[in-house]
């Protein structure tokens, strides 16, 4: 049943608590005063009003059904072992103080400082320079180089109802003005102007948050990143229901090279009854959903492509390849505990069953800079290592 939010006063009170704690503990302070022109101030105020929207009146609180495990003999795959590592229970720092009242959610309000960190406030919260889908990217053809590099695995053909995977949490080093992403992408339609996509994962994005910490993020678009969609809750689209965790939250702790490994699980699937695309973390936290009404191709039966892997923005400062790291910053050849990984990868079929993906393909922009290595075993099932350091003697 849809529920109504509390009064605006109650919602704002909850938001005030969230803001106080998040700004104090997560966002790096801005030193000194920022000098801006009158026109820039006016544009900033207008953009803030656009971004800081009022709450929805009613939302769906639960999916009609959840994906279910398919028995090993049904899937012709070995059963997983019982000693499989469990993802860490990652906690939002402001939860140490408290949580929002029932039927309200935490939202990080956007500030002037947030907008002034980027060159174009009209594009705040959006992915930029994705005019050429990466499936068309050829390392030997620089004419289609859009400044994004990839090391991903994917399945295509579909239809697929969703996916589930464990993601290794790292803190890659980032050059100024760039970002590093580890994500799952669900795609509907052809790679043209009508592309639909929803994404979730971990990224380091200083321009978006004001720091270099890894954070959980989401993204969506229905027109190949041209005009629609945004990160997290930066625009209308994703409907959050969780009162503890919100997209953009700090991922902590992080994995240690040749030491303890931290992981979290993402599951995204299409509700067979409503058509909404749900998002769940660690098999227990429903974060919310993308309503089917915001899509065209993904509003239909299912997805045509599912991708898992890493992405880096490479601005090629001084004409050189970036040193921005992907994943742990180490090549997949180093293996467990050293290279970053996706593990226990599943697709959700049109019967809502969780099954191993088959005919998995890989795409790597520049193997000398970032690479990928796939595998399968009883413990981690379908998995892969990926990433790299960026610029090195073989990558310039």
From TrEMBL:
Checking Gene3D superfamilies in the record gives:
Outer-capsid protein sigma 3, large lobe
Record key words, sorted: Signal
One Pfam family of this chain: Neprosin
Q: Which residues belong to any copy of the Neprosin PEP catalytic domain?
A: 142-396
Domain of life where this protein originates: Eukaryota
The signal peptide, as residue positions, is 1-32
Q: Which residues form a coiled coil?
A: none
Is the keyword GTP-binding in the record? no
Task: Kindly provide the name given to this protein in its UniProt entry.
Answer: Neprosin PEP catalytic domain-containing protein
* Origin species: Brassica carinata
